Amino acid sequence: MFESTHYTERRHKLRQQFSSGILLIPGNSHASINYPHNHYWFRQDSSFSYFFGLNEADIAGVIDIDSGEDILFGDDPDIDEVVWTGQQSSFGERAAMVGVTTLRSMLKLHDVIADARRKQREIHYLPPYRGESILLLSRLFDCMPEQVQAGVSSSLIAAVIGLREIKSEAEIAEMESALAITKEMHVAAMRETKPDKFEYEVVGTIEGIMRSHDLQGAYPVIFTRHGEILHSRDHTQQLRAGDLVVNDSGVSSALGYASDITRTIPVGGKFSARQRAVYEVVLAAQETAIAAIAPGVTYLALHKLAALIIVNGLSALGFFKGDPQQVVDSGAYAICFPHGLGHQIGLDVHDMEGLGETAVGYDASVGRSPLFGMRNLRLAKPLRTGMVLTVEPGIYFIPELIKRWQAEGLHSELINYPRFAEYMDFGGIRIEDNVLVTANGARVLGPAIPKSCEEVEAVMAT
After folding, report:
1. pTM of the predicted structure, to 2 decimals
2. Was domain 4-164 assigned CATH 3.40.640.10?
3. How far is CA 177 from CA 131, 182, 185, 445, in A?
4. Looking at the chain, which residues constitute the CATH 3.40.350.10 domain(s)?
5. Residue 442 CB contacts under 8 Å (≥ 6 apart), including other chains
6. How many CB atoms lie within 10 A of CB 129?
7. What is the pLDDT of residues 364-391, one digit of tens each?
């Protein structure tokens, strides 16, 4: 974990945004796979990690605005737990590592909340996203699980977003440590991607590198010859010479910070002429968007810029017709770029999305578009120095989407449907990096991961 001062300072900054009341931040419980004592690997709630730092189950934090106390609720293991899982430092010793000296048994949390409710003190909590957390809150507030969401604090959501979305130097260093391992994963995948291999064989190499560093994935690996499926989880396909494979994979660092990188790989080691032509369009869109990042620029504007680069490039290849700006403004471009340019990244791969996608990605200055594709933007609001973003444009030839739009006659004056039909078997291309917003622009984080056609082909040749 970070030095204790990181956590005390974060809690102090959060406390300053409230005049009274209690801020309740529960940690996660273990999640069972197929019976109670067989658990998935433990992942702490990200906001609890941010403010209280301890990576263990069944504890909770309270920030009491009126008394000035930070309180951790938890218990030392009993002898049965020691027998099965080993001796640990005491709960008090672990709490001291994050700057907390006031401790209570987890059994006392209900009494503290009940006392605050009797005194009509305001109690703030964040939206729960796991069943166990919903049940805990329903017990604490003596309500039905369905009523828990109604008590969520919008002011606490806003305060947490405002703090977590600006990354410290220590957080950036942690993310770059994850990206160094992510480079190993992607370079190994390029070298292992060969005709006749199955996708799961390469996924095994990727996941093996994570585990060799005692780390887990930040999300399930996307490695697929069907790149037109944006988030395919299937790994059963056999690779064929001439395929394109989308590899979207990242790792969770020792302190839980995510990386999220995508590269597109030609099976056989060489891009064909038509693959290269489309790839260069995606790469130009990504590099243009990264170059335009700066504080105060909206991510919506950067998305539209990337979309315009894609439309210009594909118009030259015969896919669109008419005014490129009209293709973007009408939403016609989404036939091949149906997702947003990217999202924030940090302790969550889609950072803070559990607090509400709109709350994290939008503000009063930017509303969500009703247009297909554009409405999928996870991030649209103005950028701030210290944010970390993914920049991940793509071009996808999705047969069902093309057929449906053509049958409905959508944007027929702007889309050359016969040209799109020629690419029904193409798949998709996505290129993604993690980018820090700096005072004067942007910096791509981590070591350079082969990205140009020439760089990818050079790695695959070794």
Report:
1. 0.96
2. no
3. 32, 9, 13, 10
4. 4-164
5. 290, 291, 293, 294, 435, 436
6. 12
7. 999 999 999 999 999 999 999 999 999 9
